[in-house]
Amino acid sequence: MTDQYLAGGAHPAGCPAHADAVPLSGPRFHTDPAELYREMRRDHGTVAPVELLGEVPAWLVIGYRELHQVTSDPVLFSRDSELWNQWERIPADWPLLPMIGRRQPSILYTVGNRHQRRSAMVSNALDGVDPFDLRRHAEQLADTLIDSFCGNGRTDIIGDYAKLLPILVLARVYGFPDAEGPGLAKALNDMIDGGPDALRGQQHLAVSMQQLVALKHRAPGHDVVSRMLAHQPAEFTDEEVFQDLMVMSAAGHQPTADWIGNSVRLMLTDDRFAASLSGGRHSVAAAMNEVLWEDTPTQNVAGRWASRDTRLGGRHIRTGDLLLLGLAAANSDPQVHQAQHAGTAQQGGLTGGNSAHFSFGHGDHRCPFPAQEVAEVIARTGIEVLLDRLPDIDLATPAQTLVRRPSPWLRGLTELPVRFTPTPAVGGTA
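The structure assignment produced for this chain is given below.
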């Protein structure tokens, strides 16, 4: 790091602020993140200098205590992206703009009392989802998806199941007709994959959400969108509700899909979870919780911005600096696993029954608790129905050949090929 940066001075435009920064890219974020975070902690401490695409500087907070400090102080470490001291260097076509965001009217970038009121709207709408109805919807849609491949004896759990189930269930509880579910699933997955159809997928999703908001104004029902519109209706515009639905859909779908995929992978590759393959419910819950600690779907999150000069983890943080939340690295902080290293805990450290991980975030901008419950019901039901329907499921390829998506942000598999004894369809309704 340059002396100029340590002193808090400005750096020349176009020059990286961190001389020893770790590029926030490259294969190790998806091939060997645990070792990468260990090296970063060894070389840089709990707050590591990183470099985004285009030599844009940022800090990656990888210490558990430091991450707790950042997410617990929304005044010093704000969610207001307008504070960023790098905007003049950011081109309009910067590929990471969808991840960082600027002047977006969504719940992600509101702060203070306005954010709290908006978060209450979302939480109350999701809290109204009946858990028994939610599980019934998840079971029906899971059966429908499994019916499409159960007679083949082989499938890809990611592409044929995990990437579809969450958004199909969410579409139903949001108030969409079932017929629109497959189109929404394709649009959302196209948008997240970032391929040639990404913009088209985003447009399809946006138009669908706007049409749903208009429909629920005319004909409200017992659904999430109707409850959002009924919550102090004069306080939030349709644009704000629509933007929050976009956030809720993306945040509710892909991490839940990866939670399903990562949990099934763990259960198929680790002998500790063999009981789950014959319907052991406790092992399903244990595997899901371990994934949130050791293989969390959301590795890193952007971000927080310092509202004034401060120090964090021994680093000088300037006003307007961007701090990225290293959720996966903080979960693996050795200080959190001292009991394991002392030989007083079972394998998995504090994962067994402990939910003090950062996988759902922390502080004012954490994932609302009702949203966490919805995601858990969808993921757990999806896994349980899969194992009930296909009890002898097994990997169709060596575990070491499984490939992760090339992303420093989200952690999931590109494919999870499996084989099983072909079984008849049960006629799940969708």
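Interim note for the steering committee: The first helix runs from residue 3 to 6. The chain has 17 helices and eleven strands.
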